[in-house]
Amino acid sequence: NLSGYKDVEKKTVVIGGMFPIHNRLASTDSNTTNAPESSECEGFNFRTFRWTQTMLFAIKEINARTDLLPKTDLGYVIYDSCFTISKAVEGTLTFLTGQDEAVPNYRCGNGPPLSALIGAGGSDLSIATARILGLYYFPQMSYESSCSVLESRFQYPTFLRTIPSDEHQSVAMARLVLHFGWTWVGTIAAEDDYGKYGIKRFKELVEEAGVCTSFSETLPKVSSPEAIQRIVQTVLGSTAKIIVVFSSDVDMRPLVEELLLNNVTNRTWIASEAWVTSAAISRHRNILPVLGGTIGFAVKKATIPGLEEHLLQIDPYQDPLTEEFWETAFNCTLSFQKAMQNARESGNITSAQDVRLDPEGLCNGKEMLGKLNNTFTDVSQLRITYNVYKAVYAVAHALHNLEHCVPGKGPFDGGSCADIDKFEPWQLMYYLKNLRFIVPHTREEIYFNNGDVEGFYEILNWQSDSEGGVTYHPIGYYNGTVPIDKRLTIDNTSIIWNNEILEVPHSVCSERCQPGTRMGIRQGEPVCCFDCIPCADGEISNTTDARGCIQCHEDDWSNANHDECVPKTIEFLDFSEPLGITLIAISAFGALLTIVVAIIFFIHLNTPLVKANDPLLSFTLLFGLVITFLCSIVFLGEPQMWSCMTSQVALAVGFALVLSSIMGKSALLMLRARAVKAVKTATKKAKAAAAASEQSPDTAVIAPAIPQKNDVDPIHPRTQRAIMIVCTLIQAVGCTVWLILVPPHPVKNTAAQNIKIILECDPGNIIFICSIFGYDILLAVVAFTFAFVARKLEDHFSEGKSVTFGMLVFFIVWISFVPAYLSTRGKFMVAVQIFAILASSFGLLACIFIPKVYVLLIKPERNKEEMMITRPKSRDT
Ligand code: TCR
Q1: Domains of the chain
Q2: CA 454, CA 15: separation in Å to the nearest integer?
Q3: Which residues line ligand 1 (CB under 6 A)?
Q4: Assembly ipTM
Q5: Which of 39, 181, 786, 808 has the fewest beta carbons closer than 10 A?
């Protein structure tokens, strides 16, 4: 412990200081056979020793000033917390009770009063000491304990600090990660309050924003090579390219060494304030390939004039610490005795004479510190150092205000003031809380808002300097006092990244899902790790990272990329397409052919062939066929109200006309056939009777009359026409009712096919259309039955046969139509329907009329009156 006060007649107030000058406790074997001793410390830390000296420098500066505490001198007592809680607690107790050495004990009242403790280093140490100091309401002013839990004035009533709370730093880090769009980060935290709380808050913030952590590791406090190796393996095994480290440089160092050993490159490290400007890390050889490009947050930097000189002029013999510093810095021994002892122990020197002759390992205190390029004298990054400086000034200003209190106008009971000679700690606490002062040189204004200062960080990027070392290049800042969206300012262009492409690293678990796909979660993995699942047909996603696909509107369909709904193609069988043209041609040809047949018939109206069966029915039949041929054209084209109505109705009525005409015709044929049959049996009987009478000539037998064609036509053409007209009329009436009640109308069929809208005719009512075409079928069946019965009727025009055959063709066509129709989709359904119409019409035309036309035109000799029933007769004659 260092202490020093001036022995002038001025009053003296003592400030306590606590610094982690050593990095750890020396390991002692714990056995309980002898009394335990306070352990030694090891691992001299030049950086923290600079902080210690800065406190002394500030005190010296203040004591030299006449405007600040002119009548009082500041003394100091400094403890080494050794980066360990136990040492910090021990130091605090010593400080308060004065049980150790010549430290004044404020409780006994002897010696100058204690004012405040500056320290105690890391947050975990400060938390421990603040609890003890809080008991006595003793002010503590910390320069580097940034943990957010120390914000609680309830738990730590007298804790103040000149470093911003880590709440700000965690927010700043989270903002940085979000700024660059990283969603897959690894975190490493020291195993202390600083690391744990800092990283916890960071994770909370980023996870809220949808960032995932690939791994979360903890740096051990006690050296553990296995743990460090495990962390390095985790880093290597992870796809996260961004690693956030919340740790002090001391704890981070073993990890850095292992990283160097494993040559872990191509990662970007996000540094917390505690290691971003640490020479202990950045001064490693070959550090740049591993940690180059690191981005970190640093507290405000300052230049403190005179500090460098103070550091360079340090007297090695001043106290044990300066001595140790000197010996560590120059790697030598200051005292002759020690040197000789060391030499003896190593066994190469035997006498004092030898040491004097061989001065190796011995130093004289006159060595040049300036030449050493030591962290201690490096004043380029005075950040925590500046915090120490501010802390000392804060205490000094508070004491100044306390000293200059005007009695009667003081803040305490009845306007009283505290006495600088013997004030109570809570009285000084009052002044510290309400302090507002300007720091010399930097002109920064300091005040404590509930014990904390404003959150302001500089953002640094590790870049290489001309000699291959590290420079901390400022790339922006974080200002916690402005509105949240303006807090982070980063100049992206001035960052040098540590990857091959020198571009913003890409750290995501899964690449973003492009439009056309959606995110599919992976069971048991963080939400940032997902698969991109293509949208199904008819569904799209038009944003990146879509959670789900959107169903397209009924009239729309997804495009090939599934990122846009496009209108479905509208489909109908158009006139202009080849199929349409072909169908039109065929039906026109059919209609023409029918008309030609009709004309031929008309020309030969008076010939026996035409007259054989009611010619009018032939013409209605042909007319019906023209209708069916032509109505197939109406099926083509974009369905309209009128075309839907006409096409179906014309077809139904056309067929009714055709079929009822055929029925009328075949009714005659059938009756003729029956008559012929009757005649035949009668003839047979007559012959038999004749034969019998020949055998017995006595018996006179009257042969029954043999029916003659002309006088026995069993049915009058009027009846035939009546059949035709009635049957057709029934259909016409049915169709009219249909058209009036539920007319067929065009519809858009979106359901049948995904990518198309099929324009088609909706029959309006399925029962109607079924009964109407059912009626046609009925007519067809009846006509066929009649014709079938008459098929063997032997006239030389074979009308029975041809009608039967025509009807068969008709049936075959329509029966095969059903499966063909049902198995086609879209516009081809219409085509199939037209084909069936055309085929059946052609079938009828061809079977019924072509043989007759053949006779009429080519074999006119056969076109003569001939008794139908004459054949058996002529055979007889
Ligand atoms: N607060 C840390 C310790 C720490 C530190 C540093 C240690 C900070 N900055 C610089 C060494 C060097 C910030 C804590 O524990 O609260």
Answers
A1: 2-25+40-164+308-332+367-378 (3.40.50.2300), 166-298+455-494 (3.40.50.2300), 517-567 (no CATH), 578-686+710-876 (1.20.1070)
A2: 25
A3: 122-123, 144-147, 194, 248-249, 273-274, 384
A4: 0.98
A5: 181
